[in-house]
């Protein structure tokens, strides 16, 4: 049972390590490229298709500050693989070191139940839910910026703010009428 | 639980790293400038991480068993408390910075060199502007008060005018009424009398005409009779 633990390794000096988990490996690469452009500190981006992570690089892998699950709303598989990967994450991560990112939320072919399901998942785990637009470079840059804000806090680079504190401010909430049919 | 042990060891190692000061010898990426700002930042980061780990440790210690709904209910209160404390801390930090700045400025002014001269000049100008501002504010306040007074008076005038107009209207209505009452009664009586006398006159005239015709008197020759007969013609014959 190889859980990914948040505090089992030393944190990197002036670095932030982020793990992007995406079932389909589409958005990961462009997002990673946008993320490493940060110059004030070193950003290490690790990509994975799902958890658990392979045991081979267990030793060489640095401590992961933030785990981002990228879910594509147009594919059911993406959501399921994200849900399955959640089991391999130590509970210590869910205090602000996990983030959900959703792409293709504006697509007309997406049923609203998908978005509601993702929302409920994020709300039950007290994690922030970000929406990203992955088709244009501007969208990728914006998504990277927002992730960077959360990453900086998770890596301890923002004085007076810890990821637990930030999570209490950014957690996803489910509106009370989510089970009502919407007027579309 | 074994994570807490490893976290405990980690804590000790972390403290060692922070206390030793300089950046640890890890894989250098080329941007290893050990300027004080970077060092301070790294130190901040490490203390932040230490804090997080300490929180985790403490969370493991107090094993208070409570249910999730209860925890959910208490969470907003704790978050509010946290917000309050953070705001207080921030305000205190601001005050502290202000005090430090003023102290530094004061010290500088005491030194009496070139920069102090510039500072003095700037502060004098500030004082002049502030007193000017105060004067202008006082003036504007006075003017505002004057305006308010005048507006109040105008309102009062309007109100009085309104009242007077109402009174006048009332008076006018009242005056017509009793006069027309008496008038009407007298008018009717007079008219009734007029009708009565008119009828009497007409009847007498008819009788006289009848007598004149019946007697077959030649009234044209006699001037007195002619006058009487002429007056008879003026009144219409009533039916």
Automatic annotation (TrEMBL), chain A:
Keywords per UniProt: Centromere, Chromosome, Nucleus
Record's keyword annotation contains Transferase: no
Compartmental location: Chromosome, Centromere; Nucleus
Listed Pfam families: CENP-M
InterPro entries in alphabetical order: Centromere_Cenp-M (IPR020987), P-loop_NTPase (IPR027417)
GO cellular component term of the entry, any: nucleus
Protein name: Centromere protein M
Gene: pane1
